């Protein structure tokens, strides 16, 4: 619980007064009050200002900023300023500069630019974190630490290469073990000395910016290592902060489905997860919902912080559409509905120069409050004040879980065959979307998560099966759970070495099938899923593409077969009774109609129902406190739409209105209801 001192949904965002004069910052606090803003994230990119040279630290501007904010009722999310290193540091200590994928040593520039294994960067990052913690440990404004900013990007420098070898030694012990795990007799890659191992970048095993590799073993390990290296850099600052402020929560802002970091590992090291939500105008709302759920899943369902979103538009997309009237409020509540206990923006005031001057902000370049964006921000701010502490620290309760795994994602992307069109995130989203359409809450879980609270667990394309996972899945099904997996699952271990003896390897007896071959066709080529009989909502024919496992039912019952090609008549959908439960295998990538009918079938079997019935595009999701349930009804449509309360009467928490039965909700509106 991060909310003791400010027990409401925090409202605010990134704020850079260091870019402005006195007069402007005075205006800022006046307008923050009008907008109901009570938290400002400061000091994100101010390392150069805080430490103008090696031995000088100057936090006067920050003292003034924090005091002024606090005197005006605004708390602080205090960043450690290490997200971009100072130019003097880059000049004097080349080790802070990264070497990129092509092997080029970077010059000074950009941000998020430090090598995570640079002794200089680590020394000074830790030092400034400690100084900040010491200085502000008793400041009543500071609510939470924000370490660095959006960690990411890999480095391939000499220091990283050396640290990689140490990381490998710790993981494998001996070179023999490394050689075995990476299957290095292939193409004569056997290593005899540790320093023969180099970073697998574009000068070595990988090409196309790391989309492809000759050796999955080393490439997977390098990703793990870089993710760990950045995490170690985070931990170093975190621990420095904790030494002075053991009770202040520490976070760093994540990026949802960002591919490069294993966020489940990161979640464990943070007191509270926070993330930056930047969908584009055409991102499916269910994709955003899924990403919120994934971020909630990083700490097993604990509420998270929405650290950033734009109040209006981005600047870094090719076309930066404005959020249409109502959409900022709608997407803010979508985040809250999925577990966010803060609504924060990038940024509070639009900057005057450089690359983000056309990025939306609560305060626009015109500088006053008479703008659409400010009015919408202020309305939301007042609502969040009105909601008091009613929502914070409540939980989303789900009986369905979808497994997500970054290492599996890397392995699929790097697999080299059978298809370049296989997209792990898309496959996961297909299943998520089907639950979403029925207002059935889903937890996005890691492969380590305890399964005992779930009735249904779906692991789409579980290509990599990690040690112990198959056993946990078997126990879950044996006790009565429903498990679903798909084509191209159970194929390899954590080093991308194939589990011999027939696909799907360790999952074979659980799903009761053997996949003999895997066909891959260009995605415009479809096969058919032909149901043998009607099963629940499933009947007739559906389409499938991308990959086609040619499977034999061993113990499983065949529910559907392929409709064409030389494997016509072979099973494509099977169900295996395993102990008290069932395990389904879907041998190809089905169309969305199939996925919906399939999900409807298994949820009916388990008697799982959505929160309320609603028109398409009207999302309903609940957050629960001990014996209280708060429902969010979100109309993503451009028109009014309806939902049905059933027999119950719900009260609108903001207006006091009551609703029973068929109820209309305005376009882009959100209703927050309690029973
Ligand atoms: C985020 C970043 C912010 C700002 C924002 C613009 O990724 O953390 O500093 O750049 O994007 O959308």
TrEMBL record:
GO molecular function of the protein, one example?
beta-galactosidase activity
Q: What is this protein called?
A: Beta-galactosidase
Q: Which residues form the Beta-galactosidase trimerisation domain?
A: 398-608
Q: Which GO terms describe its biological process?
A: galactose metabolic process
Q: Which residues are listed for substrate binding in this entry? A: 111, 149, 316
**Superkingdom, according to UniProt?**
Bacteria
Q: Where is the signal peptide?
A: none
Keywords carried by this UniProt record: Glycosidase, Hydrolase, Metal-binding, Zinc
Q: Which organism is it from?
A: Gracilibacillus salitolerans
Keyword Zinc included in the entry's annotation: yes
User: Under which EC number(s) is this enzyme classified?
Assistant: 3.2.1.23
